[in-house]
């Protein structure tokens, strides 16, 4: 009987996805709410959801919820569809496995004027910042190169090999990440970047410059990332101001 119940719940969830009640990339109601609505136990709902996750119909983002697998851009990753996420969190949301190769982690002696301005560094003193460069993979395919500059106080005590994991998870132990401001431009890939990303020289890349902040607008890190244009698209929401 338990099997029949969770299969029936799974069937109804599929019907809601097909009729548009739950759209692509939409978060589902909580297990508690679904259990109450379907008049079943949370365990039954969990079994139904796990079945649909295994079938690539749903995807779970730990700590955030369960989502309908994105179908809007089948051949590309849609960055921003679930708000501000780390690379690792985005991979999980698409049912992928992320890998990281740390190319560099060392003090940055002379950050340029743009970095000093973005991170609000004091010009009168020698800023203590570190540079972290990583190559990121999804299912062993190179996707992006990250060049991150971060105040030393946030990564004090960490070594190069420690950054094989999510930077957001490391930082969340000492600071609360709230939002990010981004600038996006298209560039043509040079020979070095082409070799790192496994693409042809001259292909387009998306260069994304971003600053990530705390809720009280303190900059946490500056990031210049290079994304494969054949693999990524970016979603933004624009709100009209009163005139």
What structural keywords apply?
alpha+beta; Arc Repressor Mutant, subunit A; 10 strands; 2 domains; two-stranded antiparallel ribbon; 243 residues; six-stranded antiparallel β-sheet; Chorismate lyase
3D structure, described in words:
The chain has helices spanning 2-18, 31-38, 42-54, 87-93, 113-118, 152-155, 167-171, 191-197, and strands spanning 58-61, 65-68, 77-79, 98-107, 129-138, 141-151, 179-188, 204-213, 219-228, 232-234. It has 243 residues and is an alpha+beta fold. The chain folds into two domains: 5-68, Orthogonal Bundle (Arc Repressor Mutant, subunit A), CATH 1.10.10.10; 77-234, Chorismate lyase (3-Layer(aba) Sandwich), CATH 3.40.1410.10. The chain has a six-stranded antiparallel β-sheet. Strands 1-2 form a two-stranded antiparallel ribbon. A hairpin with a 2-residue loop joins strand 5 (129-138) and strand 6. Helix 2 crosses helix 3. The longest helix has 17 residues, at 2-18. The N and C termini lie far apart (60 Å). The model has no long low-confidence stretch (mean pLDDT 85).
